Amino acid sequence: MNDWRKTLLAAAFASAALAACGGGGGGGGGTPTGTVNVQMTDAPSCGFDHVYVTVSQVRINASSSAGDNDSGWTNITLATPRKIDLLSLTNGTMATLGQASLPAGQYQQVRLVLTQNQGNTVANSVVVSGTTNEQPLATPSATQSGLKIIRPFDVAANATVDLVLDFNACKSVVQQGNGSYTLKPVITATPTNVAGIIDGYVAPAEAGATVYAEQSGKVISGTVADSTGHFVFSTLVQSSTNGNYDIVIAQPDETTGIITSVPVVVGATTHVSTSSAPVTLPASTMNTVSGTVTASADASLRALQKTSSGTYEIASANANLDTGAYTTSLPVAAPMVATYTGTLPVAFAAAASSAGQYTIEADAASGATQSTAVSITSGSQSGINFTF
Fold this sequence. Notes:
By secondary structure, this protein is an all-beta fold. It has helices at 169-172, 239-242, and strands at 18-21, 33-43, 48-61, 74-85, 95-103, 105-114, 125-128, 135-138, 147-155, 160-168, 173-175, 181-183, 187-191, 195-201, 210-215, 218-224, 230-237, 245-250, 257-262, 269-271, 286-292, 300-307, 310-318, 325-331, 336-339, 349-350, 357-363, 369-375. The chain contains 2 helices and 28 strands. A hairpin with a 6-residue loop joins strand 18 and strand 19 (257-262). Residues 1-28 have low confidence and may be disordered.
């Protein structure tokens, strides 16, 4: 799963007809109410042309610890379960899942409930790049208790808050030893009333490049440059809350581009490049890093690169659930780094000492982490193993 390209579909999803039901949604007895409108978008996927999930319900609770059958749930139930291709949701394209009236206040937990695969009916599936057949995607617990997202957000009286669920398909789909696929969900939720936008352009020849918005070396959101080279992050939390962002541009056979210290202002757009002066990255040889992780660790891998400006995630992969095997492809050339100052175009310079130098980090489902330094300057490296 080391192909960072993905197909970008232009079609947007229309709003579905929905009914809200369940505890917490009434607002009777004079309690002031507001409205939550739930939407879904996606980050890039590795090696797939389509990743389908069928959404049947969204559940919201004020308690982060509320169980499946506890009180206080408001349910947004789709009149007809909706099969959504996550890979059509990028660069600001959203699927509207529905809305509900809630008592004004703070909410902590969101559940995304999926429809179950049954017999020959494949509700959740993937299409591997270069193929046409849908392969079933196993969704443990997602069809019963739902995919759990813990993220506080406020609903104000007589107001509507748009809550965007950002589904990272790349990190969420895991292969098993028999070639089947399982969903290991990585989802974030962001209320748009505390968010702003970062956008920019890569050269049209680099359309399809994966672009990440990162903080402290961790991916916050991802997208893909469209056919014109344009990329958009539409739901990044304001810098005054969590700090500025680093924009990382990754493309097979090309040098990594990094723009540091990019601010986000609520309701505004920060441009890091323009169509007349797009980011253009030089070619690079690619080498691979591969190995195994203790299969029972259910681990994900991150390839990190350090420069004088900071540490950045360049690529990631999930270890095979049965064998623990993983592989990722990385550029040998030194990353090109620029600091955002508000003046365009930004000025890039090669971080020469970082050429071919990576840290591979293995993160187990238990929370345990191991890492090791790897150099790919002389060729691909195998046997980079982790034992938990």
